[in-house]
């Protein structure tokens, strides 16, 4: 299965959350590949803590592959290349976790027949090889989004299950922006239909992920004044109403990830050690990520709303 | 020592790369479909043998090259000629593509008209003298940018075949492709072919070094390499499936579900040396002794059958106790 991770704005935690989902699935025994299609600012190497390995693959990344400079994009085996103390020792029986990095020097580029051909070939090859392929796309209606919309519309990819996650923060601006990224005039849906996707089918393969959501009921906020508390509840309720008005209400949401300092500041994978041993990350975050990872392939959450 | 134009040059080195993958099709292809898939040229027939396993070999296609050879010591050797590529399908299930070429000890310092290269299919001539050791090591290490990239040619052919309209582009289970890079140094005639090394590296890469007497064509070397690559792929793939945690701790129908593809699609494919040049069949003996390819395969297939047998014993008991 292919999972495309998109967001309207930067800073939504798209990369770090989708990387954590890939990690959870690999722990559960799936073979997972993570592609950094964020051509403007590839960050995945830092998230998986493979910065050194990344330097060795300089200029042999996805960008160089798509423009035809190398025959295959570089692969980094996260378990064996990472400098992260915990990731180096994955539990027995877990699946493979492979990162295909972007190129630092690679910016956006014009779409062409050849690039598209290579993109389809790559996605198909990975689809045959991995249980789950996570593709992290640049923010907004970027070239990367257009390219994968075009690629997945090709007849040879008709049998491939592709799903979209749209990440947004839990604010008024982000809710509106996420809705317009999908349903807007120049949105993913319209762009997909232009390229030959079936509208209904594409709509049903898109779900939203609310990131950095403060939970008014959380013990974090138990010390706030009653006025603040009431205001938080009210605002949260208003946002839910707003999301629902924008067509990204409850039924369209795959899950939410709580506000988590470790995700916000460190932008790295959260391991069980962070939760249980050093306890720098919240149990609730781990649970949310695990739940979200499970729902990626659970058809119940992808049925017609 | 420069071969005079028109005179066939004796090769001192042959290099190749084999890619092995599962055919993206839910059903294994039958003989007719396989022949249609591998019909890369209209003028040459596909070769089919049905005993002891169905094996279909495509005609060779040529790719003209004019670029630097990969070398281990950084010496820049320009080479011109043609690389041969071919594809094989075993039991309508495993698809392989190979790109390979031979190198003479030295070539002319100027580029000749294309016609002269075309009459020597699969021969690539260096400009000047060939640094044999560096070229052999370079071929095993793989090509850098702008260097002669056999992987690209093999992968290109594989990609073309996987796009074929005959295939439904669905796989019965997930599996990783492997690549095997090989070099064969030429020995004087009369010597016996031998296997110098077979190395299993990271990321699905295998490398192999051979010594090959002059009278054995490079195509035969490509054949034994394909045979070894195919069996190595089987071992790698089945081992990976057994290592997976979902199988390790699983119980009940999920075991049957996980092992079913191995039984249906892979267990019957083990048939070493089935379509190998008899002059090279003995190269298998080395690998049978150590590490013991067939021993490992027997062990794996026994494990699978035992797991399934245990499951079969347990199932009726559970059903009885549920009543």
From TrEMBL, chain A:
The keyword Magnesium does not apply. Residues 3-121 form the CobQ/CobB/MinD/ParA nucleotide binding domain. Keywords: ATP-binding, Nucleotide-binding. One of its GO terms (biological process) is negative regulation of cell division. One of its GO terms (cellular component) is cytosol. One of its GO terms (molecular function) is ATP hydrolysis activity. Pfam families: CbiA (PF01656). SUPFAM superfamilies: P-loop containing nucleoside triphosphate hydrolases. PANTHER family: SEPTUM SITE-DETERMINING PROTEIN MIND HOMOLOG, CHLOROPLASTIC (PTHR43384:SF6), SEPTUM SITE-DETERMINING PROTEIN MIND HOMOLOG, CHLOROPLASTIC-RELATED (PTHR43384). This is ParA family protein. It comes from Streptomyces cyaneochromogenes.
UniProtKB/TrEMBL annotation, chain B:
InterPro entries: SCO2521-like. NCBIfam families: SCO2521_fam. This is Uncharacterized protein.
């Amino acid at each position: 299965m292919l999972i495309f991770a998109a967001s309207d704005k930067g800073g939504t935690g798209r990369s770090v959350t989708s990387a954590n989902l890939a990690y959870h699935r690999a722990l559960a025994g799936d073979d997972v590949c993570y592609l950094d299609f964020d051509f403007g600012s590839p960050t995945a190497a830092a998230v998986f803590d493979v910065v050194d390995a990344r330097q060795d693959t300089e200029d042999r990344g996805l960008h160089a592959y798509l423009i035809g400079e190398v025959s295959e994009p570089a692969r980094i085996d996260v378990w064996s290349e990472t400098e992260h103390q915990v990731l180096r020792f994955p539990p027995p029986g877990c699946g493979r976790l492979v990162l295909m990095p972007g190129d630092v020097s690679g910016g956006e580029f014009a779409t062409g027949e050849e690039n598209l051909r290579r993109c389809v070939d790559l996605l198909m090859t990975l689809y045959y090889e991995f249980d789950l392929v996570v593709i992290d796309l640049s923010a907004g209606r970027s070239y990367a989004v257009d390219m994968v919309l075009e690629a997945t519309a090709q007849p040879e990819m008709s049998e491939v299950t592709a799903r979209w996650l749209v990440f947004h923060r839990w604010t008024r601006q982000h809710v509106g922006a996420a809705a317009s990224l999908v349903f807007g005039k120049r949105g993913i849906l319209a762009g997909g239909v232009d390229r030959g996707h079936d509208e209904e089918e594409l709509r049903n393969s898109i779900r939203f992920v609310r990131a950095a959501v403060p939970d008014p009921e959380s013990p974090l906020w138990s010390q706030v004044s009653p006025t603040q508390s009431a205001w938080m509840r009210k605002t949260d309720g208003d946002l839910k109403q707003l999301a629902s008005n924008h067509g990204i209400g409850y039924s369209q949401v795959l899950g939410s990830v709580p506000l988590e300092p470790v995700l916000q500041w460190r932008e790295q994978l959260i391991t069980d050690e962070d939760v249980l041993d050093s306890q720098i990350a919240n149990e609730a975050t781990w649970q949310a990520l695990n739940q979200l990872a499970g729902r990626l392939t659970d058809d119940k959450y992808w049925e017609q709303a | 020592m420069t071969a005079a134009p028109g005179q066939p040059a004796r090769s001192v080195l042959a290099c190749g790369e084999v890619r092995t993958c599962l055919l993206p099709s839910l059903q294994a292809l039958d003989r007719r479909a396989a022949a249609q898939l591998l019909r890369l040229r209209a003028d040459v027939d596909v070769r089919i043998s049905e005993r002891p396993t169905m094996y279909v070999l495509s005609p060779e296609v040529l790719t003209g090259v004019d670029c630097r050879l990969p070398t281990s010591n950084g010496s820049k050797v320009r080479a011109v000629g043609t690389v041969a590529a071919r594809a094989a399908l075993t039991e309508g299930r495993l698809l392989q593509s190979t790109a390979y070429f031979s190198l003479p000890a030295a070539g002319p310092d100027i580029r000749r008209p294309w016609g002269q290269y075309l009459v020597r299919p699969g021969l690539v001539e260096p400009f000047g003298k060939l640094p044999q050791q560096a070229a052999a090591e370079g071929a095993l290490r793989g090509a850098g940018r702008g260097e002669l990239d056999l992987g690209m040619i093999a992968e290109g052919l594989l990609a073309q075949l996987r796009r074929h309209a005959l295939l439904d582009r669905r796989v019965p289970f997930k599996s990783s492709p492997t690549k095997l890079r090989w070099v064969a140094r030429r020995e004087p005639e009369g010597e016996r072919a031998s296997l110098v090394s077979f190395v299993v590296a990271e990321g699905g890469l295998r490398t192999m070094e051979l010594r090959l007497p002059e009278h054995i064509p490079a195509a035969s070397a490509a054949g034994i390499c394909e045979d070894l690559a195919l069996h190595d792929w089987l071992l790698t793939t089945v081992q990976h499936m057994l290592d997976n945690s979902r199988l390790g701790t699983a119980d009940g129908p999920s075991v049957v579900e996980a092992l079913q593809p191995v039984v249906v699609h892979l267990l019957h494919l083990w048939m070493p040396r089935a379509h190998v040049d008899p002059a090279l069949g003995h190269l298998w003996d080395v690998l049978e002794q150590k590490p013991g390819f067939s021993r490992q395969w027997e062990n794996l297939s026994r494990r699978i059958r035992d797991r399934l047998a245990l499951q079969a014993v347990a199932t009726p008991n559970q059903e009885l106790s549920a009543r």
